[in-house]
């Protein structure tokens, strides 16, 4: 099941948050092939916080980008081996899983090394023209028994650091090469078995399940030789014994590790530089949780996102241009977001995106959860200023009426309670006021303007006019905007005082009104989307 984030614009307002919650809930009911998760791009404002608390809805998860992370592309079906496991376990794991590397962990599951196909190949190539030796990579009797699936007939567990021999010569010539501490493989030749023990070999392995005579076992006990019975022939037995070396003897230490939340763009070069072309993803305790290889980094499937209440790159989540946008649902103008594939897109001139979502619920014959319904009502009343904004349509009124009956409350009283509870910004800094509901707009030639809006009950906020104008100018200069404007909208008087920093002369011409100390009086103006942004964009 694919994971799809449903996310609105930066500086999330009530409509953005409610729409993300509502669309995610609706799509999870109607699209079983995907899982939709609501998200937000910043801290919620006071109004949205009130709506979330009032409704009991869970605040969407805050995310900062939609770019691919290690955990989005790594292989999570991890195959690992313990450091004391025989090397054969690693070889089998590679073969069964068609993988080129196996992370090695200690007894606590913590990563301590890695073994790759290259490590195995080097081991065989190094020994291919000489007698196999355990001098550099000692083995143990219990590991030899494990890989052979054999049994110990005499002697005990011990460390092996000699050479490995398969006897095909006469008994008389055996002493010319083999020596004490070696491992000897022989079949049902009693004389050769006796000769090997007399030479002082550490381990005698008898192949083909040929149990030795009693005198051979008694001699082995007397000489301190361990005798192992193997069910396989001499050739296979020798190959298996070479794979009895414990993993820690062969593994490479300090393998390349990454964290699951790291961006793949940050680790690609490192993965390409290590010879095994992979990295081990580990958690905060250094326990392996996945493997990301070079092939995982070639044309990975981008993350999926559905956009609500906006369609502009400048207002959207970081990395949206590389994401797989599956849907856009908005009530603004069509923005500049480009997509690589066809998608479901709705741009409908109603007062609120939440209106479109409730209409979809109705069309599907479904009702939202009570908490979601209350969030959607809050959003419609917020964006339409309790149905008083010129952006309000009959469809918004119909949605409010339906939700009013569904929730058994008075929508106008609910809306006034919401605005009164969230319009007091006296405790906020000027920086918070001018940025908490701000939207950017491109005006051509690479220039950008920003329009923020705050809804109030009464004109007390204008007593901080000088502080707000200074803050607007500082923010404008820092961001490089041509204009930064703040709409102070009084929902009772139904008008706006527009504070501006930057190219204010163009704002005056757009509204044919002179500014008074940086403030333009706009009676009857309530909507940024319909009454302010279009005129400013035309003027610029």
UniProtKB/TrEMBL annotation:
GO terms for molecular function: inorganic diphosphate phosphatase activity; metal ion binding. Its cofactor is Mn(2+). Coiled coil: none annotated. Keywords: CBS domain, Hydrolase, Manganese, Metal-binding. Residues 74-132, 251-307 form the CBS domain. Its EC number is 3.6.1.1. GO terms for cellular component: cytoplasm. It catalyses: diphosphate + H2O = 2 phosphate + H(+). The keyword Metal-binding applies. SUPFAM superfamilies: CBS-domain pair, DHH phosphoesterases, HprK N-terminal domain-like. This is inorganic diphosphatase. It comes from Rubrobacter radiotolerans. The lineage of its organism: Bacteria, Bacillati, Actinomycetota, Rubrobacteria, Rubrobacterales.
């Amino acid at each position: 099941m694919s994971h799809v984030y449903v996310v609105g614009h930066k500086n999330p307002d009530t409509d953005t948050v409610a729409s993300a919650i509502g669309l995610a809930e609706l799509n999870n009911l109607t699209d079983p092939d995907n899982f939709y998760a609501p998200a937000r791009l910043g801290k919620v404002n006071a109004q949205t916080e009130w709506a979330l608390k009032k409704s009991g809805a869970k605040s969407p998860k805050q995310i900062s980008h939609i770019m691919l992370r290690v955990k989005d592309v790594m292989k999570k079906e991890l195959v690992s081996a313990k450091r004391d496991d025989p090397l054969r376990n690693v070889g089998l794991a590679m073969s069964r899983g068609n993988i080129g590397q196996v992370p090695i962990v200690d007894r606590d599951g913590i990563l301590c090394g890695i073994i790759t196909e290259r490590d195995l190949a080097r081991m065989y190539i190094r020994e291919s023209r000489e007698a196999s030796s355990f001098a550099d990579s000692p083995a143990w009797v219990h590991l030899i028994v494990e890989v052979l699936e054999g049994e110990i007939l005499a002697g005990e567990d011990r460390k092996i650091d000699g050479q490995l021999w398969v006897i095909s010569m006469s008994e008389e010539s055996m002493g010319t090469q083999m020596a004490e501490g070696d491992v000897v493989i022989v079949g049902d030749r009693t004389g050769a078995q006796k000769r090997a023990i007399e030479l002082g070999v550490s381990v005698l392995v008898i192949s083909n399940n040929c149990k030795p005579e009693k005198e051979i076992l008694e001699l082995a006990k007397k000489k301190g030789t361990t005798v192992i019975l193997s069910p396989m022939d001499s050739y296979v037995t020798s190959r298996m014994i070479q794979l009895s070396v414990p993993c820690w003897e062969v593994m490479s230490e300090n393998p390349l590790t990454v964290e699951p939340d790291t961006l793949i763009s940050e680790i690609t070069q490192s993965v390409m530089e290590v010879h095994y072309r992979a990295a081990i993803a580990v958690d905060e305790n250094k326990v392996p949780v996945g493997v990301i290889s070079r092939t995982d980094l070639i044309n990975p499937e981008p993350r999926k996102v559905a956009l609500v209440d906006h369609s502009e790159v400048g207002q959207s989540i970081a990395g949206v241009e590389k994401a797989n946008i599956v849907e856009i649902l908005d009530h603004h103008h069509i923005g500049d977001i480009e997509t690589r594939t066809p998608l479901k897109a709705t741009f409908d001139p109603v007062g609120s995106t939440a209106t479109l979502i409730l209409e979809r619920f109705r069309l599907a014959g479904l009702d939202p959860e009570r908490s979601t319904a209350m969030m959607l009502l809050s959003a419609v009343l917020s964006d339409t200023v309790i149905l008083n904004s010129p952006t309000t349509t009959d469809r918004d009124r119909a949605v409010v009426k339906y939700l009013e009956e569904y929730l058994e409350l008075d929508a106008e009283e609910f809306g006034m309670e919401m605005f009164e509870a969230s319009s007091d910004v006296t405790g906020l800094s000027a920086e918070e006021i001018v940025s908490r509901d701000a939207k950017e707009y491109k005006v051509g030639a690479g220039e950008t303007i920003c329009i923020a809006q705050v809804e109030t009950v009464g004109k007390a906020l204008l007593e901080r006019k000088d502080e707000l104008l200074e803050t607007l100018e500082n923010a404008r200069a820092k961001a490089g905007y041509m204009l930064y404007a703040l709409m102070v909208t009084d929902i009772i008087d139904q008008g706006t005082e527009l504070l501006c920093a930057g190219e204010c002369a163009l704002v005056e011409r757009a509204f044919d009104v002179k500014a008074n100390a940086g403030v333009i009086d706009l009676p009857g103006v309530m909507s940024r989307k319909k009454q302010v942004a279009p005129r400013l964009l035309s003027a610029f």
